[in-house]
Amino acid sequence: MSKQTLNQGRRWYVIHTYSGYEENVAHNLKQRIESMDMEDKIFNILVPTEKKIRIKNGKRKIVEEKIFPGYIMVEMLVTDASWYVVRNTPNVTGFIGIGTTPTPISEKEVKDLQKRMGVEEPKFKIDVSIDSPVRIVDGPFKNLEGKVTNIDEAKGKIKVLVSMFGRETPVELDFLQIKKI
């Protein structure tokens, strides 16, 4: 065991990759593990992603985004050989750790991340309440301002009273179409 490989048992480590190469690194690493018989030292590779809701052309889309672009997680036993296999995978720039020593992340961090990744339905973060002044940021009523009159968290919808043609008109919108003023 050299100084970069303190034996910490089977733990999760974070590897830094070139951004945009996370899947590529995970794929190459899986192949290297097989071809170099490292299955007993390197167990799991994870590219942490989460589902987010985006609005495109007025339509809701669920997209998967990387939680930590440029990083992947590897569950492994760090030995000189396993360290070398991971470190020399194309597009890996190094382990996250102190100096050259990979530092495992805590079980709690791993559990929290796995929980975050397991969220099937993305949650809406709603920071408005009834009577909140809001600006509409998307759709046919873009740039109009109004007051929130109704919030339907389950559906992700909100009713806003906007002033148009000299009178108050209720407009139903998606949460993602408004911003709090």
TrEMBL record:
Signal sequence annotation: none
Any single GO BP term: regulation of DNA-templated transcription elongation
InterPro entries membership: KOW, NGN, NGN-like_dom, NGN_dom_sf, NusG-like, Rib_uL2_dom2, Transcrpt_antiterm_NusG, Transcrpt_antiterm_NusG_bac_CS
NusG-like N-terminal domain location: 9-117
Gene Ontology CC: cytosol
Entry keyword annotation includes Disulfide bond: no
Ranges for domain KOW: 127-154
Key words, A-Z: Transcription, Transcription antitermination, Transcription regulation, Transcription termination
Top-level lineage group: Bacteria
Presence of keyword Ligase: no
HAMAP family: NusG
Function, in words: Participates in transcription elongation, termination and antitermination.
Similarity comment: Belongs to the NusG family.
Name of protein: Transcription termination/antitermination protein NusG
Organism: Candidatus Falkowbacteria bacterium CG23_combo_of_CG06-09_8_20_14_all_49_15
Lineage of the organism: Bacteria, Candidatus Falkowiibacteriota
